[in-house]
Write a structure and sequence with these properties.
Layout lengths: L1 H19 L4 H6 L4 H45 L9 H10 L11 E6 L2 E4 L5 H23 L6 H23 L12 H14 L1 H4 L15 E2 L5 H10 L15 H14 L13 E2 L3 H8 L1
Antiparallel strand pairs: 1-2, 3-4
């Protein structure tokens, strides 16, 4: 229901923007639209265009059919014969599905049974019903073999147990990640952790601190001088709570504790890398031998 309301809202905004004559990013900002609402507007525009195209196509086909019919009648009159309209594709398709006997030919399938004027006809089963019946037999055989003979697919009880096990595993991972904070974070040189931290850094930190950590709008992360503390606990705290006065947002509202842990460890590996065009030192001198030795390993 919530998605339907969003769709209706998007459709309304779509029609409003269509009536005004143009859609632009400036208008989106003026209307204070979120990314989701903008997407709904785009989807609504596409749906409206599709409906209009279908209506136009249907109208053109109707006109074309009328023109063909009138031309056929004219030709039949010129030849002095009776005009017989060619069955439409839908009529042929429907007749193939039902295999029904035309009303004028019902006498050929009429039985001798007559109940108060109600005649009984010996019609065949509709082909669509017959095909579905055969398909259900094939499906039943395959289902029985896959679930009850070979055991290659889990039954409902097994599916429930698998889902519960996955939920428990995901909960354990979530609980483990949520327990990370400034008090217990430690540097990790695990390649998987550092690779994850590098990905987070490249997606969120490069704009201000540059690719090598040399600093740009933000401070240099590769030297021994730090504005808000250089320990990994300080780095995690800065990432989590941000520095509003300096324009750095609180990433704790965006990243999970695990991701902030990973990027903190990755930033530790940038210390002492001496990238080119590094920004001048800022803040207070900080050294941590234990981290330096771990990074060196």
């Amino acid at each position: 229901m919530h998605n339907i309301k969003k769709y209706i809202k998007g459709l309304g905004l779509c029609l409003t923007l269509l009536l005004t004559g143009h859609v632009s990013s400036a208008q989106s900002e003026t209307l204070n639209l979120s990314n989701e609402e903008t997407s709904m507007i785009v989807i609504s525009l596409v749906l409206v265009v599709m409906v209009l195209v279908l209506l136009v196509a249907f109208y053109l086909l109707t006109i074309l059919r009328v023109m063909v019919r009138e031309d056929g009648i004219r030709r039949a009159k010129e030849k002095g014969i009776e005009y017989v309209e060619e069955p439409s594709m839908w009529s042929k398709f429907y007749a193939g599905l039902t295999d029904a006997v035309p009303i004028e030919e019902e006498a050929t399938v009429e039985l001798d049974h007559n109940y108060d004027g109600i005649r009984e006809l010996d019609n065949h089963l509709p082909p669509w019903w017959t095909y579905m019946f055969y398909a259900s037999i094939v499906f039943a055989v395959i289902y029985m073999f896959m679930y009850h003979v070979s055991g290659s697919l889990p039954l409902q009880t097994e599916e429930y147990e698998i889902a519960m096990a996955e939920a428990q595993a995901n909960r354990a991972v979530a609980d483990e990640g949520s327990s990370i904070d400034e008090s217990n974070i430690v540097f990790s040189n695990d390649p998987a952790v550092l690779a994850s931290g590098k990905t987070v850094y490249e997606r969120n930190c490069v704009a201000c601190h540059k690719a090598g950590g040399e600093g740009g709008i933000g401070p240099n992360l590769t030297d021994e001088y730090w504005l808000h503390g250089g320990s990994i606990q300080d780095i995690y705290n800065t990432i989590k709570n941000g520095v509003p006065d300096k324009g750095m947002i609180a990433w704790g509202d965006v990243l999970s504790p695990t991701k902030m842990n990973d990027v903190s460890s990755y930033i530790e590996t940038l210390k002492g890398t001496n990238p080119p065009n590094a920004k001048a030192p800022q803040g207070e001198l900080y050294k941590e031998k234990a981290i330096e030795e771990a990074v060196a390993e």
